[in-house]
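Worked Example 4.2. Consider the chain below.
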Amino acid sequence: RKGNRTAENLQRRMAEQKAKLPKPSELKPYPRKLAMEYEHDGDQVCVNSVCVDPSGRWLATAADDGVVRVFEVATTRCVRKWVLPASEKRERKVTSISWCPNGKDVLVAVRGHQIFALPILMAGSQSSSGQVLINQSLALLAGKETNPKAKWSKTQVKENLKGGAHDSVCIDLGKKASQCSWHHKGDYFATVCPSGNNMAVLVHQLSKCATQTPFNKSKGNKIVSCEFHPSKPVLFVASENHVRAFHLVKQELVAKLVSGSGSIISMAVHPLGDNIIVGTTAERVEWFDLDLSGKAYKVIRNHSNTVQDVAFHGHYPLFASASDDGQVHIFHGMVYNDFETNPLIVPVKILKNAHHVT
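Applying the procedure from the previous section yields the following structure tokens:
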């Protein structure tokens, strides 16, 4: 009887909480239906990463065929097709891309053990802001001592649509990288090498062609992702079981978040920087509030397979999760400025029957 009463009380509390949530129709706008399709050459091309530039006009994709494509968001027209140069290890798969956040047309692409900084939107013979930045960086390489942590070099990247080849920066890490992310000022970016031990996370400065290791010792767990804080000198590093926040100036650990179940696969940081979501192999999305505790504030169990990626919207109070079950779940996630009100999380839409999420 006691067990039955406990179950009844739990169901009643859940029904009361559900009744307090606003209706999805009251939380528009949010994605509701298929609007655009960005087609790639060939039926067997697998897209591993997508990234939208800060203006929202361009969409870049990274694929298994070793090509970085840039599409115009409004028209789905492919405007650039960058073919990365051949690798000594015959690696073609581009696994991650990230657009420079300060308005310069530079895109960082990860392929195997190499990182490429590409000047994406060059128009004819006129150099774009991205090409100017890369040329300034390449000028520093002449006579510069070899960095023991990473090998910086100049390379030529071919553009198939407009024709010609353009100078770009290539960084050889010596270890296979899986992910990259920019600092909000647009000069530093971080890369993740899961098998790199104490060099699993490297921070690169494009303007000085320099690479540094923020951590001298390995924490023992496999690193899967890292992100910079949107406004503070803090680096979030996600391992399979934890997310740690390191203050880069004070050189100290400021927060440690513990995942409740499964291994962490992906991580996203809220635009304000005080909330984090992670996707796990246990089919869950976990929301962490840094102002509350090191445990998840909210655990979302809507998927039926591994959650491969999570992301926050840059302007609207929205976040999404993509899973191997072929579904993308859209949530309303409102974060309030006062410390007394907890974040409001409401599921608003499920995009079904898409495809295998990579």
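The first helix runs from residue 2 to 20. The helical segments are 2-20, 129-141. Compare this with Example 4.1 before moving on.
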